Structure formats: structure tokens, C-alpha cells
Amino acid sequence: MKFKTIFILFNAILIFSFAFIFLMPFFLLGAEYSTPFWLKNWPLFMVFAAVLVGFNIFFVLNWRLFSLLESEDWESLGALLVDRVLVRRRYDRRMIRLLVNTSLLRGDMATIERLESALRVGKPTALRRDAVLFGAARMLKNDAEATEAFLAEFVDGRGVDNAQWLLFYYGFVLVMRERFDEATPRVQSTVSAKDPVLALMSAYILGSLCAVAAKPGDRQAQVDSAEAVRTRLSHTFDVAKWAREAERAKGEVHIVILSRILDEASGWLFAAKA
User: Fold this and answer.
1) 5-14, 152-161, 230-239: segment of lowest average pLDDT
2) Which residues have a Cβ under 8 Å from the Cβ of 34 and sit 6 or more positions away?
3) How many CA atoms lie within 13 A of 203 on its CB side?
4) How far apart are CA 115 and CA 169, in angstroms?
5) Global pTM?
């Protein structure tokens, strides 16, 4: 739906609601009794007016942003966000995430690095909160060593959104660096995640890459743990339902970056039924 349409509809709904509440006493009670009602409940009308004005101010201030999003003009959107976030130092979370996502779409890793540096100095809590997103962006540079060093700062999970995903990323980077003994306990800890996509990807990596490199005494335990997850999820999801779940998960950029692994894990999930 176009942003202009949303703007018009929301205004229409607010105005209709306001008019309905304002005029209802007149139609139900008549003019004689409606005036005392309005005088007694005037704060309610002030709240309606404040919501209406606030919504319109928000929309006007962000009109260009919404228009660029709608037209998918990523270059102009990126320039606008750089000005708002990096030049004016407005470290609003919504803008930070949008700048990272837009930069990833444009392949502009330099802006993400610039943003990371700015947050590290200006608002480290924001960097910690979205460490998964910044770590995923680093992974795209194919520099596993630098990605590991970055993720290691936040692997304790304190103040991190999607802390289990960050732990998985850290384990996955260790797998990429062939440090399987260190990677296995991290990946093993996310096998029991409530998020089915995270659980499956963890099980897939544990039962394949980690298990292959494990000592003979540990290998079977890892395979059994992975198979238990595959069995549980294959009983919960059929192919169509899982496809919807996977597409839903890809609404997050940090999961899109691992699309190939997710696709492989999805194939593994139903391989036993084939």
C-alpha cells in the first residue's frame, strides 16, 4: 500500500472517530444534555487532537524518507540516511537499521564501517544492541578473522537483541576458521532455540560440519542431537509450511545473508522423507 494512501486513510479514521464521539451525545441525548458532556470530557478531545497533530507532524517530517522507500531509490535513500544518522548524529534505532539494510542493498560496506565506528564512540549501547546485524554485514566481506574479533566482543549476550543468533554466528565463524572444538559448544547451545529456523541451521551445521571434524567418541552424540531436531521439526512442518517459515525468517537481513545455508538445511530437513 502506498504511503500516501496510508496517510489519507489514517487521517480519515482519526477524524471519523473524533467526529463520532463528539457528535454521539448530541444524537443520543439532544443539545440540552450534550453540552455538559462535552465540557466534562474536553480532555478526551485534546488527546484526539494531539494524536492527529502528532501523526501528521511525524508523516510530514518523514515524507521524503517514505517516498524514497516506496520508489526503491536506494542511492537517494542512502544519502538521506547518512545525513540524518552520521552527519546529524541522530542515532535512532529505526534509522540505524534502515541505514545498514540500505547500505547492504547497495553493497556499500564503507558506510556500514563508518556507522559502526560512529556508534562505538557516540552510542556503544546501540552498536551492542544490533551487533547481530553488524556482524552479519562483516561476514559479507569474507574476512572471518575480523568477523570473529567483532562478534567476540558481544558473545556474552548482554544488551544484545537476538543474542542466540549472535552466538550462532560466532560459532559459524569459528567453523569457517576450522576451529571446530571451539565452535561446537556454541552451535550446540543454539540447537534447542525456540526459533525453528535457528534450531534447524544449528542442527544442520552440528550434524554435518562439526560432527565430521569431531573425535570418534563425540561424533555420534552430535549426530544424534542434530537428528533429534530434524525429527522434531519434520513432524511439526510439512514442506509448504516450512517454506513459509523460511520466507518469514528471510525478512531479517542477517538471515538473508545465510540464505545458502538455510536452503541447504531446509533440504536436509526433508531428505529422510524423500
Assistant:
1) 5-14
2) 25, 26
3) 26
4) 21
5) 0.80
